[in-house]
Amino acid sequence: MNAVESRLTALGLTLPEPAAPVANYVPFVRSGDQVHISGQISLGPDGLVAGRLGAGLDLEAGQAAARLCAINLIAQFKAACAGDLTRLRRVVKLGGFVNADPGFTDIPKVINGASDLMVAVFGEAGRHARSAVGVAVLPLGAAVEVDAVIEVS
Question: Where is the Endoribonuclease L-PSP/chorismate mutase-like domain (predicted)?
Fold first, then answer.
């Protein structure tokens, strides 16, 4: 077992089967030494975490939803690299979108749920640039969506 798989096990995480696209796009594109992963919504083993932060969902629920997005990003990355997570050289950037009430301002803290997991799984290579944006609605009513750019070897 490699270091990344060991970290996943230590965190008690099992990667799901990568989700199929829900519209006319592909789950990831490899271009040169980068993999661009399409937005992954807050879908976990218990179903979709849906709703609006600040109007029914609190910060803790948002962070958990963002963590689910990160788990789904890692699953897509694993598929993009034929199962070899050690090919990750760097998480370059995460783009985070939060279904938020207009008065909810903790958008960056929500996306920390995804950022923190990337660092926990990939160590220093998991540190990344990021955007965190509040939006009026997300696909399927999801609470959070996160996309990624990852450098590969």
Answer: 5-144
Topology of the domain covering 29-152: 60s Ribosomal Protein L30; Chain: A; (3.30.1330)
Sequence ranges of the domains in the chain? 29-152
Q: Are 35 and 59 in contact (CB under 8 A)?
A: no
Report how far residue 126's alpha carbon sits from residue 3's, in angstroms, rounded to the nearest whole number.
13
Distances (CA, A) of 21 to 40, 95, 97: 9, 18, 18
Sorting pLDDT into bands at 50, 70 and 90, what band is 79? very high
pLDDT in tens, 100-128: 999 999 999 999 999 999 999 999 999 99
